[in-house]
Amino acid sequence: MTSQGKTPSNPSPDSTTRLEGHRVSDSPWDKSALHGNPHQRPDKAQRVREMFTAIAHAYDLNNRVHSFGLDQFWRRRAVGLAHPVDGALVLDVACGTGDLAISFAKAKAESVVGLDYTPAMLDHARAKAARSGGRVAQIRFVHGDAHELQYDDGTFDIVSIAFGIRNVADPSKAIREFKRVLRPGGRLVILEFSQPPSRIVRFVHGLYTNHVMPWTATILARDVSGAYRYLPRSVETFLDPNQIAEQLFSAGFSKVSQHSLTMGTCVITVGRLAN
Ligand SMILES: C[S@@+](CC[C@H](N)C(=O)[O-])C[C@H]1O[C@@H](n2cnc3c(N)ncnc32)[C@H](O)[C@@H]1O
Fold it and tell me: In angstroms, rounded to a whole number, what is the distance separating the alpha carbons of residues 238 and 258?
């Protein structure tokens, strides 16, 4: 692999300052903010960052409990579909507390960078990776914005994003940016929640995500940000898998495949660039 041994350059020093803003509210996703389509709010980026700042301490616990432990299986599946061969350089965007980046490091990627715009999530990622030691401790967690990555064209073999594309303010701009930093032949792997195609499964899943999870998650996280009201609403109103695939083709990916997980509650989209 031509990129073996390369390490991507560091983030620009001004990225933190550029991304900070005024607080919107103690409850960024209160009922009024979720009344319409949260993806169309001009202040979505700020509300999302405040939400993740508020729930960072309980994010992993909530993931494990509310997915019945399946979330780590979904991430491992995404890593498998990315085919990280020896020497691969991986950028995991919207890495949050680092679970997908950690899975890539365990799969023997040469160099893994985890990037996120919420400092509190990155703090948890760094602490977790340091506790793991070995290859995982080598992951570099950096502050940055998915819409304006601080890396040169063609830097990475794999770009991944798990449960993040729904949270960025402008998904099509972010996808074009992922394409820019991938080398020819590189792969983009997107893991995201989806609406199950079966009406019965969708009904039961909707009851769980709209009426059970917001309560239990709020108790676990002692959250007042509205994160667990935003989650089902943001899934219902987001692009469906066909629209995500269309965005990849429009950005210049030549092949796109999709893999449905757990009765269609999640979908992994893999985009490949021509060599
Ligand atoms: C649901 S979490 C996913 C975390 C992790 N990928 C995982 O698998 O659990 C979404 C993450 O997206 C990050 N995020 C949202 N918009 C972003 C942006 N424009 N640039 C970088 N990170 C962003 C948030 O800070 C948050 O950590």
Answer: 17
CB 210 within 8 A of CB 34: no
Name all domains of the chain by residue range, CATH numbers in brackets: 41-193+239-272 (3.40.50.150)
pLDDT tens digits for range 179-189: 999 999 999 99
Give how far the C-alpha of residue 90 lies from the chain's centroid of Cα atoms, to the nearest Å: 14
> What is the helix (H) or strand (E) element at residue 127, kind and residue range?
helix 119-132
Identity of residue 45? A
- Name every protein residue with a CB atom under 6 angstroms from any ligand 1 atom: 48-49, 52, 94-96, 99-100, 116-118, 121, 145-147, 162-164, 167-168
Q: What 3-state class would DSSP assign to 195?
A: coil
pTM of the prediction? 0.90
Structure tokens given for 268: 């992994």
